């Protein structure tokens, strides 16, 4: 199958390589000419056979909007666009509606696997019509991990469902990472008892109920830098965690663990947390607890 791919960053470039390794022909476009196969989106469309399939792998928001709008001017009836970035599911409704009058199909694909996807494959959560998804199965099968299809790929539902599933996936990911991080801090604090923090996490990789790929990655990070001396405790969020919480509020679904994990990220961005100052002041007021004076 011959597919166009827009966006050749870390994930996009690896996806192009994985597809080519599986025997598919990929024409890629990126605004960095050093990695791009063609000069622009018009040239990309011209290079593809009909019906043309273009996978968009660019940052969500205005960049995705502009790419899909421009694709609408260079593609034609019967062609198909896949948004594999981290767009909010509500954006899928807008993009599909924009392309539909031109006869251009639309599929949204939640993609998980990060920089390891080239070797291990990508977990895929897809939204779109049955006909469009079935047409794209050779591409999805090439990208997903080896093994049973249902363990690395799901056609979740209609347009928007793929990114909705990926949003919840990332919300869960936030909470899992926070739990491992809090466990690390507690173990590291009690070095009088715990003599091998890295080894403790490493021993959890097989047989325990907390084993996971995230745990393996944490062990790898600890082996490289056991005290995290080269890392500042500042953590960004890419949007999906916030969207998960907003959806939970809209549907009256309690997600206290996911909520706590994203609020912890906000605390990480404050040099001296105002809320923690307030807690310290209150403890001093009602209980006479000692307050640590701020350094000048």
From TrEMBL:
PROSITE patterns linked: 6PGD
Record-level GO BP terms: D-gluconate metabolic process; pentose-phosphate shunt
Keywords assigned: Gluconate utilization, Oxidoreductase
Cited SUPFAM superfamilies: 6-phosphogluconate dehydrogenase C-terminal domain-like, NAD(P)-binding Rossmann-fold domains
Residues of the 6-phosphogluconate dehydrogenase C-terminal domain: 162-296
Domain of life: Bacteria
Pfam family name, one: 6PGD
The protein's name: 6-phosphogluconate dehydrogenase
Native organism: Agreia bicolorata
Organism taxonomic ancestry: Bacteria, Bacillati, Actinomycetota, Actinomycetes, Micrococcales
């Amino acid at each position: 199958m011959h597919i166009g791919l827009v966006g050749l960053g870390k994930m996009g470039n690896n996806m192009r390589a994985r597809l080519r390794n599986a025997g598919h022909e990929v024409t890629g476009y990126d605004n960095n000419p050093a990695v791009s196969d063609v000069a622009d989106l018009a040239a990309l469309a011209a290079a593809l056979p009909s019906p043309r399939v273009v996978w968009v792998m660019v940052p969500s928001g205005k960049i995705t909007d502009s790419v899909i709008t421009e694709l609408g001017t260079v593609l034609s009836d019967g062609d198909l666009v896949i948004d594999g970035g981290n767009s909010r599911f509500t954006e899928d409704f807008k993009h599909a509606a924009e392309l539909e009058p031109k006869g251009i199909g639309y599929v949204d694909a939640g993609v998980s696997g990060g920089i390891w996807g080239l070797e291990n494959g990508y977990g895929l959560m897809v939204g779109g019509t049955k006909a469009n998804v079935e047409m794209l199965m050779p591409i999805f099968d090439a990208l997903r991990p080896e093994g049973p299809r249902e363990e690395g790929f799901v056609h979740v539902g209609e347009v928007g469902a793929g990114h909705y599933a990926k949003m919840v996936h990332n919300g869960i990911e936030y909470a899992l990472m926070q739990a491992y991080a809090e466990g690390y801090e507690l173990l590291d604090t009690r070095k009088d008892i715990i003599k091998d923090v890295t080894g403790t996490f490493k021993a959890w990789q097989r047989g325990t109920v907390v084993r996971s790929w995230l745990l393996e990655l944490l062990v790898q990070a600890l082996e490289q830098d056991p005290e995290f001396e080269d890392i500042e405790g500042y953590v960004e969020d890419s949007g999906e965690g916030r969207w998960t919480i907003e959806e939970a509020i809209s549907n009256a679904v309690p997600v206290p663990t996911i909520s706590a994990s994203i609020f912890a990220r906000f605390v990480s961005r404050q040099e001296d947390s105002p809320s923690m100052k307030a807690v310290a002041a209150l403890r001093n007021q009602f209980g006479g607890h000692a307050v640590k004076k701020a350094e000048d």
